[in-house]
Amino acid sequence: MTIDPPYLQLLRLLRNEGAISRAELADRLQLPRPRLLAEVERLVAQGYVVEAGMAASRGGRRSTLVELHPRLRFAAVDLGASSIDVEVTNGRLEPVAAYTEEADIRSGPKATLHRVNELLAKARVDGAYERLDAIGIGVPGPVSFRDGVPVSPPIMPGWDRFGVRELLTREHGCPAVVDNDVNIMAVGEQHGGVAHSVQDFLFVKVGTGIGCGIYLNDEVYRGTDGCAGDIGHIQVDPNGPMCSCGNVGCLEALFSGTALAREALVAARSGASQALADRLAASGSLSARDVAEGATEGDVACIKLIREGGHRIGSVLASLVSFVNPSMIVIGGGLAQLGHILLAEIRSAVYRRSLPLATGNLPIVLSELGSRAGVTGAAVLASDVAFEQAS
Known about the structure:
Elements: H1 6-17, E1 20-21, H2 22-29, H3 33-46, E2 49-54, E3 64-68, E4 74-79, E5 83-89, E6 95-102, H4 109-125, E7 134-139, E8 143-144, E9 149-150, H5 164-172, E10 176-180, H6 181-192, E11 201-206, E12 210-216, E13 219-220, H7 251-254, H8 257-270, H9 274-283, H10 288-296, H11 300-324, E14 329-332, H12 339-353, H13 356-359, E15 364-366, H14 373-387
Parallel strand pairs: 4-7, 7-10, 11-14, 14-15
Antiparallel strand pairs: 1-3, 2-3, 4-5, 5-6, 8-9, 11-12, 12-13
Helix pairs in contact: 2-3, 6-14, 8-9, 8-11, 10-11, 11-12
């Protein structure tokens, strides 16, 4: 675990907790008062913080409150396989503008990022910001965090080695940071969700694809090349269907949004599920949502599909639990809508197959932030890269 320099600790404290007195900052950062005052004065001069009146008396002379400059603005972007989520936040990471729309990541980086830039331009016209201090963006594929580029993403044709960070930095005149979508979801959940007080946990995104954000020692573990946590391409059935990565029997090929829609179609056409057959006749297609609704209505085939998927995910997670020994597992992503049937099956597989010592105090829970986990994490990373400029 790295130890942040005092100015970075100070800015993060103000981001996470709001206005704090100079005296309390000196105590919490364990800095001599003259050093703390010098740090604050430097950050005021750089436009990161402002004085915010007097703090309540602690028995002596009242200290001055310090808070982040109200002008600070960060852009947070979460790109999914079929959606774009954009938020502009203030320094406390509170949204001041938000946009969500359907999109196809397969349309390529130029078209997708052009739309992101249009949404950010709309936010500017609407008065959300005068200038951005940093941008954070998550994409649904492996990322070289160091270089700010996607690397051979299976479901993102045309994105390989595309300079996402470079384009956004050039377009908006501010630093940018690019990460895998599940990593930013893990960061978001730790910042403002159910994992807020946890230093070691796994965030499992179950959606169009499956990925795992690994949060260890209070920071994301990305691996040497940025592809740690890509559990969707662990083989679980050597005789299984072909995966988008080119291999067969991957977890993602057997249970994901795409796989569930495929299996739902089979169940509807074979007569195994009347509920799915009725939905197929009404709309001409099926999705994971149809399976979720069918399960809620008690359809046996829908419940079975969800349980089989939960068992497969749980079997993979059981190995990770024995290996990593996390203090929590958080389940998020679009298929988290499958709810407690999915969660119960994942729990059952993990608790049954992992080492008892690793699961004795292991909560497995649904994401508290839901669809906002990604943009929240992207905003955290954007603020971090902006604050690092204060060195």
